Amino acid sequence: MKWTSVVAIYCLFWVVSAFVLLPFGVRTHDEAGIEKIPGQAESAPANFKPGKVAIRATFLAAVLCAAFVANYIYGWIVPQDLNIFGEPPNFEEHMKN
Asked: Is there a contact between 10 and 69 (Cβ–Cβ < 8 Å)?
């Protein structure tokens, strides 16, 4: 696998990890006991820290990318393992009938 492919896969894992980790550790103003600004949404976060989310996403993406590359190298799970419908029918046999 080329290093550029690994970087692209890491970036994809990073974006997905960031979106997955966004809701964790965030509290609303009601939960934090802070007064809301008039017109503020009830669900607006009071303690959102994007740097913390980015650091967590970086570590999670590194672990997931390492697992993906290791699977690519060692072949633990291959596409044939994911075939839940069985073998596809042979197209040529259907054309003869």
From this structure: no
